[in-house]
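One record is kept unedited as follows:
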Amino acid sequence: MTTSVLQVLDRKGHHVETVPEETPVDEIARLLSTRHIGGVPVTDRAGTLQGLVSERTLVTVLTRQEADFGHLLARDVMMRNVPVAALDDDIAIVARRMTDCRTRHVPVLEGGAIVGLVSIGDLVKFRLDEAAARITSLQHYITSDEAPGSRAT
């Protein structure tokens, strides 16, 4: 049984923060901190995905730029050629894409528009919740009077 990105977003929520290419890096750092998110897609004036800035990106830039950090913009530091997902993509394939590209966040696109953002944590949480529900269902099945081989008294 496959699980789609849409199913994850339906549970997690479809809202996604984005920032324009001209956003100062210190503003992005505040956004990530206050919203408790690990990455934010970067868009051009038309709202088209141009890249992604993550916590990892900021740490890397901070260690390389030090004094100039405050003068940098999203377009200066963003990861370009970001892997993306579609709503009907299987999450196992998306997780593999994330692993191969060494990224923890993937924007979800529909018709070129950003309609969500999934993280590797979102995918793991969804799988763990699914497993817990299956375990509960199986335990109920095994202990119920309707299990094959059980005898009603």
